[in-house]
Amino acid sequence: MKAIILVGGEGTRLRPLTHKIPKALVPIRDKTLTEHVFDILRKFRVKEIILSVAYKKEMVREKFGEGKDLGLEISYVEEPSPLGTAGPLIILNQQNSPLTETFFMINGDNLFDLDLKEMLEFHKRNNAAATIALSRVEDPRSFGVAVMEDDKITEFVEKPQVPPSNYINSGYYIMEPEVFEIIKGKEKAMIEKDIFPVLAEQGKLFGYRSDNLWFDTGTPERYDQVKKEWKLS
Q: Given this model, what pLDDT does residue 145 score?
């Protein structure tokens, strides 16, 4: 399987650290943030990776190259301007090279000690078009919270004062090639607004719940926390 990792954001909430380096390269112990994401995928023997780059993309390319030193096969999708979280899918469509098999898609901000094998089995068992890994947090009011019917996701409620559950969008997805058709011809698109609602209405969007360790590194406070507590089992 291939994996698309979104690493093109400017990391504005982590400034001034991200004035000099992209968030993809911020250090967590002895590795970059993105290398920790690679480790998560490597546990499932995923070696074909597409990095979606934009901000300080030259630094990312210089660091990882084609991935040979990491035992990976890395290619790149470059966004000339922000296209939304579905940007790499749009570019692959424009290049007439959409993925033709099941693939992972990951928000490069987040680290999740996730059992990808079990998640994939769940995805296939439900004949899902997309599966979102859901992380359980104590206070979900600052996140997008999943509204569920059994294992199906019917919608997400953004930053609710009365959360319908404690499970939030972790930024780890499994998708089928049909998602490329949903955004075909679009110049900009958001996974959360342009793909997931369509699949939810069709009954093809599922949520894989996990209580394993999850971190969002998007703020200085959370970045400090992940540096202290992240440990891949």
A: 87
Give the CATH number, domain containing residue 125: 3.90.550.10
DSSP output for 93-143: HHTT----S-EEEEETTEEE---HHHHHHHHHHTT-SEEEEEEE-S-GGGS
Q: Could you give the number of structural domains in the chain? A: 1
In degrees rounded to 5, what are phi and psi of residue 155? -170, 170
Q: What are 154's two structure tokens? A: 């019917």
Domain range spanning residue 197? Answer: 2-229
Q: 75-107 pLDDT, tens per residue?
A: 999 988 889 999 999 999 999 999 999 999 999
Q: Which of 20, 159, 184, 193 is catalytic?
A: 159
**159 carries an active-site annotation:** yes
Strands 27-28 and 205-210: unpaired
DSSP track, 13-50: GGTTHHHHS-GGG-EETTEEHHHHHHHHHHTTT--EEE
